[in-house]
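Bug #77: duplicate submission created two jobs. Keeping one. Sequence:
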Amino acid sequence: MYLFWLRVAAVLYAAACFAVFPAVLQSAERWRSACVHLGGLAFFFHFVSAVEMLYLAHRWLPVGAREVESLLGLAVAAAFFIVWWLYDAISLGIFALPATFFLILIPALGPDRFTFPSEGVRTSWLVAHIAALLAAYAALGFSMLASVLYLVQERRLKIIPRAGEHSRRLPLDWLPPLDTLERIAHGTLEFGFPCMTVGLIIGAVLVQETPLGAAYFLDPKVIASFISWGVYVLLLLVRRSAGLRGRKAAWLSGVVVVVMLFVWASNLVSHVHRYGAP
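Kept job's structure:
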């Protein structure tokens, strides 16, 4: 029964993760309330699952990687709610809630190695995994393009044309206005983030059917992917909290793209997650 409660907690943590981003990035009170209530319910069922798991095992210390991951996730969630209660710092949930979800996702699949009901189901999940990550990379690339064009357009507008040049069509007159380029860069970033999150979650599920198990998460490419996800979160948070716009926001957007290029480069040294590998 403890596995059922853990799965309920995982679903509620996922919903709380979905709510925490508009709650923090958009300061939406309705999402803030939903995040706190969903996260609180998730923590309750998580606590019930942990107590029942240890009680049935007739011990009070975790044994095995999955039990440790579940209790570590419980500790992270408890720390977040204590900080939120004392300091009303819900913004930390943008890190704590996804971290808790990722920690308990694998234990929630079961004590044994997870298997898909059929090869067709596994293929569907694999297609969704690849499609989500490719969509994230495409969105990041488009954001970088819009940021570069923003800097070019800004520099172009600062140049004062000489006498008689105003009547001629300049080579870059086709560029959109600065405000449009800024909204494109920010909008594609916001679109790419859930795609990357979904891709990583599906990948974490897919690997449980392989003999690699937890060793998969020690692979350089996988580590780099989770680091890039963290940088992505920081970028969105900084842009929103600091109100960055214009040139600074354009340069900051390029940071995530550089990290993405590092993730692609790490594919060359990956031994277990290489594109095209048999």
